[in-house]
UniProtKB/TrEMBL annotation:
Pfam families: DJ-1_PfpI, HTH_18. InterPro entries: Class_I_gatase-like, DJ-1/PfpI, Homeodomain-like_sf, HTH_AraC, HTH_AraC-typ_CS, INH-QAR. It comes from Kitasatospora putterlickiae. Keywords: DNA-binding, Transcription, Transcription regulation. It comes from the Bacteria. This is Helix-turn-helix domain-containing protein. Gene3D superfamilies: 3.40.50.880, Homeodomain-like. Residues 221-319 form the HTH araC/xylS-type domain. SUPFAM superfamilies: Class I glutamine amidotransferase-like, Homeodomain-like. PANTHER family: ARAC-FAMILY TRANSCRIPTIONAL REGULATOR, HTH-TYPE TRANSCRIPTIONAL REGULATOR RV1931C.
Length: 329
């Protein structure tokens, strides 16, 4: 169940379920991402971490984890998120029952990393597409054949159930949910606070085929920053390659290695993200937004936005109304 923008009095409730032994990194992600999201200066989410018996829980690392809430936190949660766990076949039945009850009343269900195994044990992934940490994808597919496992996806949004790969892919999933709930501007603000990229599509591969850096230690980070400052200009492969000081062929190969996508697809994603933020945060006409983000024509922006998010610019503005006034010159 995807929520729309809510007033502070009706803050979106997130229950993060710790299934021991927990993965400590995964457990921290929802609290950081959702806890950083604000609407008009007020928290957009209330996050509660819960488990069967509040108190110390076993973890997969040397860190001691203390969970403050019991499973009653799930009862009124709008989103229920299970983080990584080594309980891939024997999660506590009380947790599974609470997850089933939450799904039955329409809560949005999600998992990070091997938390997908817990959702699968509860039967919540039956007939759905899902992903998990690529090392465990084969085991998930073998143990739960009724689940359509997409082993390379960073995250999968399949209606009321969302799953992600491990570690930083959990950040991508949480940012995706923030953007779904409250729009690109709020999600981008959270990403800036967390110093991470705001946009990584769920279909991007988990594992890059080659090392991120070139053999000489160089990267295309400077060229990507240069392009981001010039999205309104007619950027070309030749122009990007010239800035990087490489051939077009080398640019394509290294861009795929570093960013997990092609230069032109990366440019399209960045332009769409900037257009979405302008649609939400300004009253600029669509033709000016198209020009400022490099789409040139309103029709081009409309076509790409419809393909990517299923909304026209007008519908997008209606769905994510402008929260406050800002300079629009």
């Amino acid at each position: 169940m995807h929520s729309s923008v809510r007033p502070p009095a009706d803050v979106h409730r997130v229950a993060v379920v710790a299934v021991p032994p927990v993965t400590t990194f995964d457990l921290a992600i929802p609290d950081i991402v959702f806890g950083s999201a604000e609407l008009d200066g007020h928290p957009a989410y209330r996050v509660r971490i819960c488990t069967v018996e509040p108190g110390p829980v076993a973890s997969t690392s040397s860190l001691q984890v203390v969970v403050p809430h019991g499973l009653d936190a799930i009862a009124d949660a709008d989103t229920v998120l299970v983080t990584g766990s080594a309980s891939r076949a024997d999660a506590d039945e009380r947790i599974l029952a609470a997850l089933r009850a939450a799904a039955a009343r329409g809560a949005r269900m999600a998992s990070i990393c091997t938390g997908a195994f817990v959702l699968a044990q509860a039967g919540l992934l039956d007939g759905h597409s899902a992903t998990t940490y690529w090392v465990q994808a084969g085991a998930l597919e073998h143990r739960f054949p009724q689940v359509r496992v997409l082993p390379q996806a960073l995250f999968v949004d399949d209606g009321p159930v969302l799953t992600s790969a491990g570690l930083t892919a959990g950040i991508d999933l949480c940012l995706h949910m923030v953007r779904t709930d409250h729009g690109a501007a709020v999600a981008n603000a959270v990403a800036r606070l967390a110093a991470v990229s705001a946009v990584r599509d769920g279909g991007q591969g988990q594992v890059l085929p080659t090392p991120v850096a070139a053999p000489d230690g160089s990267s295309l980070a400077a060229t990507r920053a240069w392009a981001l400052a010039r999205l309104a200009e007619p950027l070309t492969l030749a122009g990007l390659a010239a800035h990087a000081g490489v051939s077009v062929r080398t640019l394509n190969r290294r861009f795929q290695a570093e960013a997990g996508t092609t230069p032109l697809q990366w440019l399209l994603t960045q332009r769409l993200e900037q257009a979405r933020e302008l649609l939400e945060s300004t009253t600029l006409p669509v033709d000016r937004i198209a020009a400022r983000t490099g789409f040139v024509t309103p029709d081009s922006l409309r076509r790409h936005l419809l393909q990517r998010v299923g909304m026209t610019p007008r519908a997008y503005r209606t769905h994510f109304p402008r929260p406050r006034t800002r300079a629009e010159s």
